[in-house]
Amino acid sequence: MEKAVYSAVLTPFKKDLSIDAKLFISHCEFLLKNNISLAPLGTTGEANSISISEKVDLIKVLANSDLPKEKIIIGTGNTSFIDASLLTKTAVENGIYSVLLLPPFYYKNVSDEGVYQYYIEIINGVKSKNLRIFLYNIPQVSGVTISIDLVNRLKKKFSDIITGIKDSSGNFENTKKYKEIKNFIVYPGSEKFLYDGLHIGCSGCISATTNVNIEASKLINSFAKPEGELINKKIKAVRDVFEKYPVIAALKATKIKDDINWSSVRPPLVALSDQQRSNLAKDLKQINFL
Q1: Domain extent for 52
Q2: In this structure, is residue 85 part of a structural domain?
Q3: Which is nearest to 20 in space by CA: 281, 270, 255, 278?
Q4: In contact, 48 and 85? CB cutoff 8 Å
Q5: CA dist., res. 244 & res. 57, Å (int)
Q6: What's the half-sphere exposure (Cβ side, CA atoms, 13 Å) at 268?
Q7: Residues 129-149: pLDDT tens digits?
Q8: d(Cα 266, Cα 272) in Å, to the nearest integer?
Q9: What is the largest distance, in Å, between two alpha-carbon atoms of the chain?
């Protein structure tokens, strides 16, 4: 796969909190026009607040659109390997071969063996040589760390299917360890690590804030050039502002001017208060982002 910046695509909801599929596709088109690839149905997409049937429907909406499937890595993880298998199989059967798979979350202190068996069940359930799995390491949310030993074990058994990882641990030293694995694509989970990641051979990043921080895509071709440092400084400043707020609600707040349906988040998340929105606008204006 080519180097790319992926957006962990936001999911827009209507006033009744149903998914606004038309606005979703429109946002995907906007991202692609700005050289941002797509990673929908992840943490930022509020995937764990979306039902299995809704996810199946959205996968089919994506597949039946004109969006290039080779630029999509879709989230199909779930607490149940049965549901994760269903979603992964639906994606593959509809021509979306690259999936982002959370480990089984909720139960804490699970063993590598248990997580290994989870992934094995999904791979055996999908039964497709076209499947490309990107593991998803986000231990501060999932409660499960994707260990180096686990990756090597999975990679040894399914070398073509276990393709790479999104590392959202926030620990770049950990990212560097993943990068030592042969024939394994590594995406840091934030554009804050994009510049340094590209310099050690990472393939880009998959990030929440690239829903709006689209200048990050310029680093792919400029990270080794003199202008790379300036671009890096700008995109990190934007990320720093959003991290001062509940990120998903803050990202959606910046897009309300485009469509009112961006104002909705699903419980247990809540929208920014008027004061938070005002402060966010001031912070972004201060760095010349809005």
Answers
A1: 4-215
A2: yes
A3: 255
A4: no
A5: 34
A6: 1
A7: 999 999 999 999 999 999 999
A8: 13
A9: 52
How far apart are alpha carbons 115 and 160 in whole angstroms?
Answer: 19
Look up the CATH number of the domain holding residue 188.
Answer: 3.20.20.70
Distance between the two ends of the chain, CA-based, in angstroms? 33
User: In angstroms, rounded to a whole number, what is the distance separating the alpha carbons of residues 266 and 46?
Assistant: 8
Q: 3-class SS at 40?
A: coil
Q: Which two tokens stand for residue 272?
A: 């920014």
Chain mean position to CA 210: 10
Outline where 180-217 has alpha helix (H): 194-199
Half-sphere exposure of 247 (CA within 13 A, CB side): 20
Q: Is the residue at 54 inside a domain?
A: yes
For the full predicted model, state whether its pTM sits above 0.85. yes
User: How many structural domains does the chain have?
Assistant: 1
- Structure-token pair, residue 93: 């059967």
3-state SS class at 135: strand
Any domain includes 252:
no
Segment 28-73, tens digit of pLDDT: 999 999 999 999 999 999 999 999 999 999 999 999 999 999 999 9
Residues in the chain, total: 290
| Domain-located, residue 152 | yes
Q: What is the DSSP letter of 160?
A: T
